[in-house]
Design brief:
- By secondary structure, the protein is mainly α.
- Among the domains are: about 1-55; about 140-190, no CATH class; about 205-300.
- Helix content is about 70%, strand content about 0%.
- The protein has nine helices and two strands, in the order αββαααααααα.
- The chain has helices at about 1-10, 35-150, 155-165, 170-190, 210-220, 225-235, 240-255, 255-270, 280-300; strands at about 10, 20.
- The protein has a two-stranded antiparallel ribbon with strand order 1-2.
- Strand 1 (about 10) and strand 2 (about 20) form a beta hairpin.
- Helix 5 (about 210-220) packs antiparallel against helix 6, helix 5 packs parallel to helix 7 (about 240-255) and helix 7 (about 240-255) packs antiparallel against helix 9 (about 280-300).
- The longest helix has about 120 residues, at about 35-150.
- Mean pLDDT is about 80; it is low at about 1-5.
Length: about 300
């Protein structure tokens, strides 16, 4: 009886088949609940949780797939945006490159135009400088010529003549100088500046009656150019070798163009020298060296 009681007081665990107390609600070996509720619990524990986990897994998988699709779409959208941005950037770079080429071309063209303008300005500057130099030269030459005409200054005339005879003078300068030489000569060819001047300083003596040696003395020594010029004019009718020598001496040394002009005219009248122009003093000197003796034989000496 004792053995039957012991047997009836135990039962096997529904999970691990271990002998446990008949009153035990939970197996103290595997910790599995016993009874109907425990069966429901075990069923739920055995099937519900895996199902839930499966559902959760399926949800997570769906969610992952959804995220993947969303991420894929975002990547596609991002690729589209990137491609558009890349195309825009390429177009912008191409436009920038074309703009740069256009700007460089325009700058090159502008630079060439500027260089041409600068060259034109340099040429214009050189032309102006040349014109200014020409004007200065012309004014200087005319100033010298004006002095020769207004003040009858032979030195000024000789300066113009020497400049003209200079073989290194260019054609433009020679043209200016020749023009001034002609202008000076024309001022003395057919005019006289002593038309109303008379040698009336000797009482009751007409100037035509003044003896030759007094006239030659006045010609060579008087400080008044009008006296010298008038004396030279009167001596044209005195056929005397001493007069010829005096006139020749005056031609060599006289610095007043009016006096020189009158000396040359009177010398030509006495010696039959044929002048080439109004101021022919250089040729006269050459001519006199060859013809002095013959002239002296023709002219008598009047005391």
């Amino acid at each position: 009886m004792a053995d039957n009681n012991i047997v009836t007081n135990t039962k096997k665990c529904k999970s691990c088949d271990s002998e446990i107390s008949n009153l035990a609600k939970v197996c103290h070996f595997c910790k599995t609940p016993q009874g109907f509720k425990n069966k429901l619990y075990n069923f739920l524990l055995s099937y519900t949780i895996p199902i839930i986990l499966s559902i959760i897994s399926i949800f997570q998988l769906s969610l992952s797939k959804l995220n993947y699709e969303e991420s894929k779409q975002k990547r596609i959208d991002a690729d589209i945006i990137y491609n558009k941005a890349d195309n825009v950037l390429k177009e912008s770079l191409q436009k920038a490159e074309n703009l740069e080429k256009d700007v460089n071309s325009k700058m090159s063209s502008s630079s060439e135009k500027i260089n041409n303008i600068l060259n034109d300005l340099d040429n214009l500057k050189d032309s102006f400088a040349k014109e200014i130099d020409i004007v200065k030269t012309r004014n200087g030459i005319m100033s010298i010529s004006d002095d020769a005409i207004a003040n009858m200054n032979k030195k000024s005339y000789d300066t113009i003549k020497t400049m003209y005879d200079n073989e290194h003078a260019n054609n433009e300068l020679k043209t200016m100088l020749l023009s001034e030489v002609v202008r000076i000569k024309n001022s003395f060819i057919n005019s006289t500046r002593i038309a109303n001047f008379k040698l009336n300083f000797i009482d009751n003596v007409d100037e035509k009656d003044i003896v030759s040696h007094i006239l030659t003395t006045l010609l060579l020594n008087d400080k008044n150019w009008q006296v010298r010029a008038r004396s030279a004019m009167i001596l044209a009718s005195r056929k005397d070798i001493k007069v010829a020598y005096s006139l020749y001496n005056c031609i060599e040394n006289e610095n007043n163009l009016e006096v020189l002009r009158n000396c040359i005219k009177s010398f030509s009248s006495l010696t039959d020298y044929k002048p080439n122009d109004v101021f022919d003093n250089e040729l006269i000197i050459e001519w006199w060296a060859k013809n002095e003796e013959s002239v002296a034989n023709k002219l008598k000496i009047n005391n």
